[in-house]
Amino acid sequence: MKLIVGDKKYPLQEAIQGATLRNLYVLKVQTGIGIKSLRDAFKRMQDQAPKDGTAADPLDFLEDEENLLALQAMVWLCKRHAGESVTVSEANDFPLSKIGFETEPEETAAEDPTVARTDSVPGVEPAAANS
User: Fold this and answer.
1) Per-residue pLDDT tens for 18-77?
2) For residues 99 and 75, is the Cβ–Cβ distance under 8 A?
3) CA 34 → CA 6, 47, 64, distances in Å?
C-alpha cells in the first residue's frame, strides 16, 4: 500500500518497518502514537482498502481519533523514511484533499507447470484440430 501526499507516493509498509528508534520516540512524545498503534491502524487500513486497486477514501479511515493520529504519524514516518527533514507538524500541514492511499494489485500465483491438465486425454487431439 502506498500513501499519497500531494504528488508523491510513499511505500507505507516500508516506512513503518524502517522507522528508526529515534523517530518512534519523537512520534510517541509528540503524538502519543506508538508502533503497536501504528501497526494496528495500518492493518485496519489494509482491511478497508478496495481489493480492485483503486484508491481508498481517507475519510472512511479518519472517523476515529486514533486513526487520525495514526495517519499523521504515517505521513511523517513516510516523509522521514524518504529522507525529508520535516517535523511532525510540518509533515501534516497538508490539505486532506491531497492525501490518499493506493493499493498494489495482488499478485496471482503462477500456474504450476507440474500439474497435469484434466480436460484432455494424452495422445488424442481435440476435434477442432482434426478438421
Assistant:
1) 999 999 999 999 888 898 888 888 787 777 767 776 666 667 777 888 888 888 999 999
2) yes
3) 25, 20, 16
Range of the domain at 62: 2-102
* CA angle centred on 105, ends 102 and 111, rounded to 5°: 170
* β-strand partners of 20: none
**For every residue of 78-122, which 3-state class applies, written as one string?**
HHHHCCCCCCHHHHCCCCHHHEEEECCCCCCCCCCCCCCCCCCCC
Distance from the Cα of residue 49 to its chain's centroid: 9
Q: Which of 105, 107, 110 is nearest to 51 (CA)?
A: 105
Nearest alpha-carbon partner for 3 in 79, 69, 64: 79
> Do 37 and 70 meet the contact criterion of CB atoms below 8 Å apart?
yes
DSSP 8-state class, residue 56: P
Q: Is residue 124 part of a domain?
A: no
Domain membership of residue 70 (yes or no) is yes
